[in-house]
Amino acid sequence: MKLILAFLTTLQVVAATPPNIVFILADDLGYGDLACYNPDSKIPTPNLNKLASEGMRFTDAHSPATVCTPTRYSLLTGRMCFRTGRSRVFSGVGGPCLIEKDRLTLPAILKTKGYSTALFGKWHVGMSFFDKEGERISDQGLKGVKQIDYSRPVGGSPIEFGFDEFYGTVCCPTTDWLYAYIDGNRIPVPPTNQIDKSRLPRHPYANDCRPGMIAPNFDLEKVDLVFLEKSKAFLKEQVKKSPGKPFFLMHSMQAVHLPSFPAKQFQGKSGSGPHGDFIYQMDWIVGELMKTIESLDIAENTIVMFGSDNGPEVPSVIAMRRDHGHDGAKPWRGVKRDQWEGGHRTPFIVKWPGVVKPGSTTDEIVSLTDVFATCAKTVGAKFPANAGEDSFDLSPVLEGEKRKKPIRPYLLQQTFAMKLSIRQGDWKYIDHKGSGGNNYEKENEWSMGQFAIPDTDPKAPGQLYNLKEDPGEAINLYSK
User: Fold this and answer.
1) How many Å separate Cα 281 from the centre of its chain?
2) Under a CB-based contact definition with an 8 Å cutoff, are residues 351 and 51 in contact?
């Protein structure tokens, strides 16, 4: 009898322990890039396949925007970025931060429930850098980077918006003009030299590395490995020094944003060129994080979420289709920047032992904005009406609840150019002509002309599609 009571007491303690939350965010990863979403994928992704088999795979999940900066704002705030009135994607010393000073964020709301919080990797929601006179730098590109006074703290760092720890980069780690790591709100090793592009790898996936300033400790091929080690160290430290204290870890990767510079141990591993190797490396990193969680004996009380900030990039889609028969956007029309499904319908997988049925799938329409409300509900935190305005709680879906009505009455999307669309059930309305993003009239490595589909209603000012009957968005029903 005593043994039974002790066992029941243990169960009650476990049930009362708030779950750890790990969110893994890939960059420019398409719906068709993973074998668990695309059976015709040419790239092995065993670790994400395993994650899907142990959790729930969402087949109608979306990034809030078709490019990175607005998506990341929306993920962290549960709010569509177009509501800020600002649409740009930051580069170099771009800023100031899009997140308003009084805006409630995902890590901040988790901290109210005692969570430790950390972000390792790409930020890309804007920071503020200052010159020697203490003035915020507004110049972009190389000119702006050369004005930075590295003795001054950086403004708008994640540690100002709810994260206890941050180690990462201001923008795209291997794309933008400042190639240096930020630790908290400081750059401990400033850049000293300008990148010599003539010494970079030469292949179709290497053309998006700008000739900025690079720090001595910044290796373009090892960026994601550095982020991985930081996340692993955080996990181990939490278990060692704060056992039982819940944590939120956001692991934000460079992969698979161009340029595709996989680390040496992954080069040639995928059989699908450098970009395939980069996807293979990204999958391996997910596996390493999962192994760490399991080795620390915290897997049973850890929610793991995996998603992407938008669809696949233009040059990678063109070259991978041509050279390797791999389609990162399959089966959708469009790619990154586009309002069509390929620009924002992305992989989304959730593993939650004891709650989510292993190997399950759902066609529930969801957005990455929903992570905010879902995590808040999970930890028992409430937020005011002026926070998380575009976020819906996915708990009923994760718990397998049978529902007659969808979680979301509608789905909003935005492009880089602030073009909008709204989805309700099978119907999708686009408030503009064309893609809303990429050029489909030219044919080059950054244009999608060869994949253009004729407009069936050329006089209509917008587009209307029934995604159930026409998932490829080929028949515009606007005037019907």
Assistant:
1) 16
2) yes
